[in-house]
Amino acid sequence: SSGINAEYGHFRDKHYTVRSGLKYGGDFLLYSGDPNTTHAAYVVKVMSHDPQMVESHDPQMVGSHDMPEWTEVNSVRRVSESVAKECVLAYVSLEGQAGRESLDDVATADVTLVLLKRWIPERDREVENKKSEKD
To answer: For the whole model, what pTM was predicted?
Structure first.
């Protein structure tokens, strides 16, 4: 799909080595160096490439490739966390790009990345306690 191609090209343009992320439930793994000598830092899950669909939260689209189930997204987050990788949700807008599927069109794609992390209240409390002890 053009959204997947746009994401692939986007990360290549940012000088990441991009490999399949299927092993971890995502679409891509991103390496900052040679995959033979470094570990992937990120697991990327490509979400919708239609911003109107994301805004509308259309229940008919949930579970399609354009809008995965949140249980699927949470699974990717949990697996990535267990293998010390960051989970990134990637939203691609290809408005006005109908019919284009080559990597030559990546420059015109609008890419929004969201780093998905688990909130652990105890960690926030520990940080706040350390700050108050210094004051």
So the answer is: 0.68
